[in-house]
Amino acid sequence: MDIGFARKCQRAHPRAYWGEPFPIASSTLMSHFFRFLAALGLMLGLFSEAADPIKIVLVAGTVKEVDKPGHHDYTGGCEVMKHLLEQTKGVSVSYIKEGWPQGETVFDDANAIVFYTDGGGKQAYLASPERITVIQKQIDRGVGLVSIHQAVEFPPQLAKQAGEWMGAVYNKVLSGRGHWDSKHETFPEHPVTRGVTPWALNDGWLNRFKFDTGMAGVTPAVWSGKEHLGSPKGGTKDVVSWTFDHADGGHSFNFSGLDAHFAWEFEGARKLMTNGILWAAKADIPESGAPCAADKALVDSLETPRTAPPKKAKK
User: Fold this and answer.
1) pLDDT band at 3, cuts 50/70/90?
2) Which residues belong to CATH 3.40.50.880 in the chain?
3) Residue 205 contacts by C-beta under 8 Å, 6 or more apart in sequence?
4) Tens digit of each residue's pLDDT (9 = 90 or more) over 223-243
């Protein structure tokens, strides 16, 4: 067989000649082939990752221009959460100010929606039946819901909605609220508490929520009350953070603290919030918890500038 002719044929029809004893040509072809497979695998991996991001929509309530610096700083808190969440690979964050987006389609591809706003009926997303329907539509398709601080307080006429969305109802007459010292050292075993370290602070809380009998689907995560402080000994009345598994598979995470912006300085609080939001979005939580690196300088830099109210004259 003419070797020169065979080599020409091999170059023209490599598949037909892979079995021929031409080691130089065969090894070169195989090398190119495996490089092609490796590049294809990498491209498919990148495509798969890009095609399935975890989208979180953060909705910040309106911040008063005249108020104690750091108090009810919804925009500053959402800036912190954006920084924390984007430390997890594959997470994208959309950030909405003033309580409601200009275009409601921002929710349509979300994995979780986070509301950090005023409560008691001041929530913009509860301002009309049409807006409630928009959120209900998202919950019905399995989108996670996260309610922070006063956002956990629904008006009385929406108590049924609160129970269905969050697994608990805040009753303005029977429930409690206020500021007190709180120390958090004991946490149940749950994805939202992975890697959470103890922290202590004086913050503003809402407690004494009404849960359904048997607390179906509810897992308490943090407790706080004036008598037992942050101990689970406070029981159901002192639950201030909990998860709620919807019957249809959706997730809700709720935390009634974070009245004060400086609470973000505590790693335990940051870890709990980051885990909780990602859990609501049905993301996998590492055994050590989600990354949540931040320091005092960063938290302070994200605080919303405010004009302090005038001091009250002494009587």
Assistant:
1) very low
2) 53-301
3) 177, 178, 179, 180, 182, 224, 240, 256, 257, 259
4) 999 999 899 999 999 999 999
